[in-house]
Design goal:
Chain A: The chain crosses the membrane at residues 20-43, 85-109, 121-141, 180-200, 231-249, 255-273, 282-302. Chain A: It comes from Deinococcus aerius. Chain A: Pfam families: BPD_transp_1 (PF00528). Chain A: It is found in: Cell membrane. The complex is a heterodimer of chains A (312) and B (269). Chain A is built from 15 helices and two strands. By secondary structure, chain A is an all-alpha fold. Chain A has a domain at 71-125 and 194-306: MetI-like (MetI-like fold). Chain A has a two-stranded antiparallel ribbon. The longest helix of chain A is centred in the N-terminal third of the chain and has 35 residues, at 80-114. Chain A is flat. Chain B is mostly helical and 269 residues long. Chain B has two domains: 20-56, no CATH class; 59-228, MetI-like fold (Orthogonal Bundle). In chain B, 73% of the residues lie in helices and 0% in strands. Chain B is globular. The two termini of chain B are 27 Å apart. The chains are: A mainly alpha (312), B mainly alpha (269). At the A-B interface, helix 1, helix 2, helix 4, helix 5 and helix 6 of A face helix 1, helix 3, helix 4, helix 5 and helix 6 of B.
Chain lengths: 312, 269
């Protein structure tokens, strides 16, 4: 029972006043639950992963032992076969990123500079659909196309290009018994799956180029090719950098594509998966997964300097 | 540059788009093939028999049910957390803004396998049994940013004067939230939820680490990929999965078209 003469305001009104009059309270109420989730669940897990990567494995029981050791990292960075895995994965990620940028550019260019109205909306949906639709189904589709007697090989026969295909498959390193079991095939599937992640940021970057800039370029006497090289390409760099974060990062961690379109030789993702599963060496798996974290961190810093974050 | 695109540009763009779409069409074709051992092209004959065969697979239906449940739960959780953080980030200026943004995009900027194994080690340490709940936790974590991207973009385009007018007319904060703010972001929120639903329905890498013995549809599909029982059944289910995710995505595009860009840059941007 309050003796104060002022009429007590209803609770709801008081709460509302606090939120309106004290922005800090409003900020805390809206920010804390999601922030707590991200910090506790996600960041907490990442820290825990890092801790695990320094744990050891009991040689006799195969159980994880919480004692500090650098053995796992020594294994990742000094065992030649493990170094190979890291190098192989990074090279594939780079190759896929370059290929995605090359294929994405004309599509993004057409979307940004030529398509208008309904046609533009359609193009947008066409690029968006594969990005959000099933990853696994598309991986599977890739394998179907590459299979021994599949579409590509049927097409090669029909066009009398069989010798060309066989020649490619005989090429050392990239070749193999069939497209579906070669690095070339794996590269094609990676590029196919991540391509939309590159198209959209590049398109967004090109979209932001003012027509006035292009006009100025041509008024100053630049031929279209010169405008492309000296004006459009530099302005597209932030978009390409933004897209490359995804193509690069997704390739670094994938363990399914290298498993489905198999060439011998593990990738980082497969190593993490195998070590935590069948091999039962969670600390080594953790150490392996720290590698992409390190690489991506460096990559993000680099991409930020290229303006990727403004293009996201 | 509204001139007609050059032949080279049109051909290379078309080739790129064909590269994106031909494999999907091939899957549709193989769902009807009479050949069940190899991927021989062209298929020797066409049949409808794989559709009832797929429908008869109980394990597939169970996986689908689990996937739908997980997608619903993680979408609702992500919608709540994503909307809250958008309300915080839309206008307020505070020092840690960039850190919050980074924190939100980290689960999609880092490879899924990192998120997956990080969650797995944590669940093991805390003795949390793996199951439906742990799958939902993983999915909600990377779905928050999808909702956030859509809602925050709309909030930034919602004029502050609307909120001020509402308060001037005597509405308290909650009434303003319910009658002004939420209606203005409703379609963006729904679009974000649709995308996060589609994302959860499709996620496999994080899920393999957090699912334990549970089988979501993508995990079922993955198992079929490596050890197919009826190969064409896999094609039929693939076709079904595409149809299933297509709906929410098209709806999301429709909900945001004309108002603001659907931040496609991704599972990402």
């Amino acid at each position: 029972m309050s003796l104060s003469p002022a009429p007590t305001r209803p609770l709801r009104r008081r709460l509302s006043d606090t939120l309106v009059l004290r922005p800090a309270v409003l900020l805390a109420v809206t920010l804390l639950p999601p922030l707590a989730w991200m910090v506790v669940v996600y960041l907490g897990s990442l820290v825990n992963l890092l801790v695990y990567s320094f744990y050891g494995l009991n040689d006799f029981t195969g159980q994880v032992e919480p004692r500090f050791t650098l053995t796992n990292f020594a294994q990742v960075f000094t065992t030649p076969s493990n170094v190979d895995i890291v190098v192989r994965t990074v090279l594939m990620a780079l190759a896929v990123t370059v290929a995605c940028a090359l294929i994405a550019f004309p599509i993004a260019f057409l979307m940004a500079f030529h398509a208008r109205g309904a046609r533009k909306a359609w193009l947008y949906v066409l690029v968006l659909l594969p990005l959000w639709s099933s990853y696994l189904v598309r991986v599977y589709a890739g394998r179907l196309v590459l299979a021994q007697d599949g579409v590509i090989s049927a097409l090669a026969d029909a066009l009398h290009l069989r010798p060309l295909l066989d020649g490619l498959l005989r090429t050392p390193v990239v070749g193999g018994p069939s497209l579906a079991s070669s690095y070339l095939g794996m590269f094609l599937v990676f590029t196919y799956i991540w391509l939309p992640y590159m198209i959209l940021p590049v398109q967004a970057a090109l979209e932001r180029i003012s027509p006035a800039v292009l006009q100025a370029s041509s008024d100053l006497g630049a031929r279209p090719a010169q405008t492309l090289r000296r004006v459009i390409l530099p302005l597209a760099v932030p978009g390409i950098a933004a897209g490359s974060i995804f193509t690069f990062s997704l390739t670094l961690g994938d363990y399914i594509i290298p498993g489905v379109v198999g060439a011998p030789g593990f990738f980082i993702g497969q190593m993490v998966y195998t070590q935590q599963g069948t091999a039962g060496n969670l600390p080594l798996a953790a150490a392996f997964s720290v590698v992409p974290i390190l690489i991506i961190t460096v990559y993000l810093l680099l991409a930020r300097r290229l303006g990727a974050f403004d293009a996201l | 540059m509204n001139s007609r695109p050059s032949l080279l540009l049109r051909v290379s763009a078309l080739a790129g788009l064909l590269f994106l779409y031909v494999p999907i069409l091939i899957i549709a074709l193989y769902a009807f093939t009479t050949e069940d051992r190899t991927y021989r092209f062209p298929p020797p004959g066409l049949t409808m028999e794989w559709f009832p065969r797929a429908a008869a697979r109980g394990d597939m239906w169970a996986a689908l049910r689990l996937s739908l449940g997980v997608a619903l739960a993680s979408t609702l959780l992500a919608a709540l957390l994503g909307t809250l953080v958008s309300l915080a980030m839309a206008r307020a200026r505070f020092r840690a803004r960039d850190v919050v943004t980074l924190l939100l995009i980290l689960p999609i900027a880092l490879p899924g396998i990192v998120t997956g194994i990080a969650l797995l080690t944590t669940f093991q340490r805390l003795n949390v049994p793996l199951g439906t709940a742990t799958i939902v936790v993983g999915h909600a974590t990377f779905c928050i940013v999808t909702v956030y991207n859509n809602v925050v973009a709309r909030l930034r385009r919602t004029s502050v004067s609307l909120v001020e007018a509402s308060m001037d007319l005597g509405a308290d904060y909650f009434a303003t939230l319910r009658r002004v703010l939420l209606p203005s972001v409703a379609t963006a929120l729904l679009a974000g939820m649709m995308l996060s639903f589609a994302l959860s329905l499709d996620e496999v890498i994080v899920t393999t680490f957090t699912a334990g013995q549970q089988q979501t549809l993508p995990i079922w599909f993955l198992a079929e990929l490596f050890k197919p029982r009826d190969r064409p059944v896999t094609n039929v289910v693939a076709l079904m999965v595409i149809a299933l995710t297509l709906g929410p995505i098209l709806l999301a595009v429709r909900l945001t078209s004309g108002t603001d860009e659907l931040h496609g840059g991704g599972k990402s941007a």
